[in-house]
């Protein structure tokens, strides 16, 4: 409940009005006995004292409610940053962090991208990343301008957002991280706007280096096996195999009905540039003049494969993401513009009254046929 200044003033006036009425009643009737006079005076003085405290208590309560309702304040901070949320420590969040595989992809300029250097579960497994969560646009690495981000922490979690989009070949680009407070989950959200008068094609590469090193393997996927299929696997779970010290990571790539990656040049366990612990998807966006599209990915951290598998239903669709608080901070427009996630149509069930009506019509028709057969 939030108490506005006008409401507080009205409540204070009412309290003072009651106070004045009580004061006017302190002239006791001469017909009262001395004992009645003493008792009534004590009672009224007690009520009077309580009423005197009412405006003070009201002001204190209103102040507490106003303070509790105050929105979280954003702060412009310099990189590098460390954030602890949802039982995960994300550290060395900085520019020029993510190199391979992004710098080795076709058309790459060779520059490293903004990303998260490492991550670990509080009191659990560590070495989840060896620089992950970066993007390139048509081969050019994205880095936060002036090595600064907008950091905001609310009850939902911590947001590290781009302050001013970076123009990469006429495409205004931003990259935002959200670390959930309610679950060990990272959201990576990239936004791309065509600022030119021409149709543009944007090849967005996303990924980085995992911490599972030479023992990296895929344990499970949305298709129910450990064989990666780019066009089918909406999510997959990795581990460091027999080493068994790194977190089990669920990488969520797209949702039902969403745009698919055009290719996945680096697949964990399959090897890329001599490494088996790297992951990269490439998404091709067609942007009309002035058009904005976004891409949204998730990484979920767990201490066991069973925990990771049990958590995958959260990523079924936009509805389950919303229920889990993983769409926090995104407007309906941003969600609508997200190319790799689309709202699924809701199946409709006929109202019971409609079914009753249909049954009545069918029954009436059957009765008519019987009557015609038996005149």
Characterization of the model:
The chain has helices spanning 5-24, 34-69, 305-310, 318-323, 332-336, 352-373; strands at 75-78, 81-85, 88-98, 113-121, 129-137, 140-141, 148-153, 157-161, 166-168, 171-180, 185-194, 200-210, 217-221, 235-239, 248-252, 263-266, 278-287, 292-302. The chain is of the alpha+beta class and 375 residues long. The strands form 3 sheets. Strands 1, 7, 8, 9, 10, 11, 13, 14, 15 and 18 form a 10-stranded antiparallel beta sheet that branches. A hairpin with a 2-residue loop joins strand 5 (129-137) and strand 6. The longest helix has 36 residues, at 34-69. The chain is globular and about 55 Å long. Residues 1-12, 18-71, 353-362 and 366-373 have low confidence and may be disordered.
């Amino acid at each position: 409940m939030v108490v506005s200044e006008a409401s507080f003033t009205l409540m204070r006036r009412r309290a003072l009005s009651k106070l004045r009425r009580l004061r006017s009643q302190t002239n006791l009737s001469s017909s009262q006995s001395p004992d009645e006079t003493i008792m009534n005076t004590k009672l009224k003085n007690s009520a009077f004292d309580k009423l005197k405290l009412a405006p003070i208590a009201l002001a204190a309560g209103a102040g507490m409610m106003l303070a509790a309702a105050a929105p979280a304040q954003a702060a412009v901070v310099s990189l590098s940053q460390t954030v602890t949320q949802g039982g995960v420590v994300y550290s060395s969040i900085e520019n020029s962090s993510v190199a391979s595989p992004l710098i080795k992809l076709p058309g790459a300029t060779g520059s490293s991208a903004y990303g998260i250097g490492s991550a670990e579960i509080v009191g659990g497994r560590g070495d989840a990343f060896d620089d992950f969560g970066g993007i390139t646009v048509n081969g050019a690495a994205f880095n936060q301008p002036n090595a600064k981000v907008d950091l905001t922490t609310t009850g939902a979690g911590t947001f590290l957002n781009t302050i001013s989009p970076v123009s990469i070949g006429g495409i205004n680009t931003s990259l935002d991280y959200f670390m959930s407070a309610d679950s060990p989950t990272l959201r990576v959200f990239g936004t791309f706007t065509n600022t030119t008068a021409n149709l543009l094609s944007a090849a967005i590469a996303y990924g980085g280096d995992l911490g599972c090193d030479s023992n990296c393997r895929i344990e499970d996927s949305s298709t129910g096996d450990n064989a990666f299929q780019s066009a089918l696997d909406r999510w997959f779970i990795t581990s460091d195999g027999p080493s068994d010290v790194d977190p089990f990571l669920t990488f969520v790539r797209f949702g039902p009905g969403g745009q698919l990656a055009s290719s996945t040049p680096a697949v964990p366990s399959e090897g890329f540039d001599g490494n088996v612990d790297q992951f990269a998807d490439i998404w091709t966006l067609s942007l009309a003049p002035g058009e904005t599209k976004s891409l949204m990915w998730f990484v979920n951290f767990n201490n066991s494969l069973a925990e990771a598998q049990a958590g995958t239903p959260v990523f079924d669709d936009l509805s389950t993401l919303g229920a889990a608080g993983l769409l926090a901070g995104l407007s309906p427009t941003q969600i609508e513009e997200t190319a790799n996630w689309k709202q699924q149509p809701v199946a409709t069930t006929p109202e019971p009254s409609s079914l009753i009506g249909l049954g009545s019509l069918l029954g009436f028709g059957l009765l008519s046929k019987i009557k015609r057969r038996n005149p």
